[in-house]
Design goal:
With 110 residues, the protein is mostly beta strands. Helix content is 0%, strand content 38%.
Length: 110
C-alpha cells in the first residue's frame, strides 16, 4: 500500500461500489490504470494470481500410485485450486490441470 493514499471524498452516485478501506487492497492487483485521486471500485482490481501466464512450472501426471513429472509453461494466470492450461515443454501439447502451488500443476488421469 505504499503507492496508495487514503483520502476522504464525498461520493454522490453508486457509493456502495467504492472501496472504503486500504485493507481491501491487500493481495490485490489492478486490472486497469487508475489515475491519481480516483476512487477505486471492485471492478478495478482482482486477486493477485499465484501463477502467471508464461511461468515455467512442474507438471505432474497422476494415476493412483503412478506419477510422471515434466515441465511446462502456463498459458493463463491462475490461483491455487484453479484449473489452467499448460503447454508441455517437450511436446508442445496443450493440457489442462489443477494449480497445486505457485510452481506445480497436477493432472489426474483416472
Amino acid at each position: 500500500t505504499g503507492n496508495v493514499k487514503k483520502t476522504v471524498k464525498r461520493i454522490y452516485k453508486k457509493a456502495n461500489h467504492y472501496l472504503t478501506s486500504i485493507d481491501e487492497l491487500d493481495g490485490m492487483i489492478t486490472v486497469q490504470m487508475i489515475r491519481a485521486g480516483a476512487g477505486i471500485t471492485q471492478s478495478m482490481i482482482r486477486q493477485k494470481p499465484d501463477m502467471y501466464k508464461g511461468d515455467d512450472v512442474l507438471v505432474q501426471f497422476s494415476n493412483g500410485d503412478l506419477m510422471i513429472e515434466t515441465k511446462g509453461k502456463v498459458k493463463k494466470d491462475g490461483r491455487i485450486g484453479d484449473e489452467t492450461q499448460i503447454i508441455l515443454a517437450k511436446t508442445g501439447k496443450r493440457v489442462t490441470g489443477k494449480i497445486i502451488s505457485h510452481k506445480l500443476v497436477r493432472i489426474e488421469l483416472n
